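Help needed: design a sequence for this.
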């Protein structure tokens, strides 16, 4: 067994083999939840999450594609994702990749999907899809982070409150 085959066998041996559409309800985002899946062939996975109030939601998903001697192992083709909104346009996730040189003429392509938006209270579905490279398995994992937004009074509102309190103090002083 040559070195390339040995490295490929070791790298591929670290992931389990399965292929199905995953439908998972994530635990309450306090403030985040993680998810993952191992895929082989085409997949369309959904992860449901709920927000307890208006929140800024950020999603980050990573897959490592292993390229050895010009051949891909364990990667995902057409790696896409979005947050499915009940009303209005969906929130797309942006795809990017970074190549990291590995041992014995190999490269690890770190594929990322990232995105987010300000979302109101409610239940949402994160959809992740793609196709695992034929003859291999691939794993991806990620997290959903929610930061609840609290209303901050506007300066004008604070000024009116201050004037009202000053008026009450002046009225009380006159009565004394």
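Sure. Designed sequence:
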């Amino acid at each position: 067994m040559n070195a390339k085959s040995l490295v490929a066998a070791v790298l591929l041996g670290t992931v389990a083999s399965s292929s199905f559409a995953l439908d998972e309800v994530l635990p309450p985002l306090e403030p985040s939840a993680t998810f993952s899946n191992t895929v082989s062939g085409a997949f369309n996975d959904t992860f449901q999450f709920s927000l307890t109030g208006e929140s800024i939601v950020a999603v980050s998903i990573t897959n490592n594609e292993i390229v050895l001697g010009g051949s891909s192992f364990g990667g995902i083709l057409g790696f896409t994702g979005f947050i499915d909104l009940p009303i209005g346009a969906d929130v797309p996730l942006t795809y990017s990749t970074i190549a990291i040189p590995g041992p014995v003429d190999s490269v690890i392509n770190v594929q990322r999907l990232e995105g987010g938006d300000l979302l109101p209270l409610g239940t949402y579905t994160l959809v992740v899809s793609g196709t695992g490279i034929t003859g291999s398995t691939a794993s991806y994992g990620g997290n959903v982070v929610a930061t609840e937004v609290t209303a901050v009074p506007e300066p004008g509102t604070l000024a009116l409150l201050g004037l009202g309190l000053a008026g009450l103090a002046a009225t009380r002083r006159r009565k004394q």
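The chain has a mean pLDDT of 79.
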